[in-house]
Amino acid sequence: MDSAKLERIRQMDETLARLSRFMKLQSIFKKYGLTATQMFIMRYLSHEAPAKSSDIAKFAGLSPGAITQVCDELVRMGVVGRSRSDTDRRVVYVDLTSEGHAKVQSMLEDRAVRVGNILDKLGYEDADTLLRLLGKLADIVEAEEIAEEGEEK
User: What is the value of pTM for the model shown?
Assistant: First the structure.
């Protein structure tokens, strides 16, 4: 691999790491008293609830035991509840409580304000280009991930 390509890869890796730190928005997590993992699970549940811990674990790339621990804490906080399946008592579903839904909505609004301010500073054309390219990048990464999963089987 030539040095110019290696430099581009290094720059992309560093930029993605910087953006990842920003997207975790530690100040918002602290404001709401949540960790990044707790927020991730709550956001997942806001779209895919009720869900089994095993489904959350697959999506998050974490062990079912780790998800159970995080969910235990979220239950104690009153933002997540558990219920058993009506058809199979061994199956336990996790879902957001009304307080959990309100907290997710509030956090998303706070995040939208922050991200919106950043996009405004880019200007319309640059923001539009960035969003288009990020969407394209996400599509490529997802396709690669699906291809790798197919190779593992």
Answer: 0.72
